[in-house]
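Aim 2 progress. For URB2, the working sequence is reproduced below.
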Amino acid sequence: MHNKDITGTLGALFIGHCSHVTGYLTSIAQQLSVLEGRNCMGKLLCDLQHQIMIMCPLTKQMILNILGSILLVPVTMETFPSMYEILNEALLNHVNTVFDIIPVFLNCSKRLLFWLIKEGDQDVLSQKPNVTTDLIGCIHMIDRLFTLISTHKEEFSKVAVYVVADYVDHVHQHTLLPAVKKALVSAVYKLLDISDKHVLAQLHTVLNQGVKEVFKGLYSDYSNFYKYTGRV
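Predicted structure tokens for this construct:
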């Protein structure tokens, strides 16, 4: 057998083993909601998935399995950084696959965004003020992710606006700590930068009144203070 045949065979075996591992880790993720110590287990699982993304050649199904973990594992202060790293790694080094599964990728991104909004509520943070700095650190991660998304305007322009719509819908239900709101708004502006203007106009007509006012304020501030300067 020629060397290249041996290499190809070993490569196929390696990919096969990685595929089994990602599938197995996904099955673990499905059980985390009922396990004791699930926060610790969730962090370990996400760390393993991230390392697999870095070290292994991945098929589309394997990437779907890994992203699926983000939709299954509880989002916590401990798991958030690894979840961000998985999404960042996917968009940096598996970008063509991400383009094929944009709805899944954005669902994962929105799950992190919604958690930040919930945890950034003033009432929530009043019970645990010591986590505010760490929470804002997590928001900076989502800001970097949205910045990376914005470099692929052609692929994301028509769908980014729906992330913005979901953002204003969730923000409408919470009173955010000012520092948290400022950091989140900065991240969402990155998506407004690439949002299709026709879709934005349509969105404004379909939002209910309360959410529409939040969106109007967000877009007004974006247009007046950020759009041409890039600064919040």
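DSSP finds twelve helices and no strands in the chain. This observation will guide construct design in the next reporting period.
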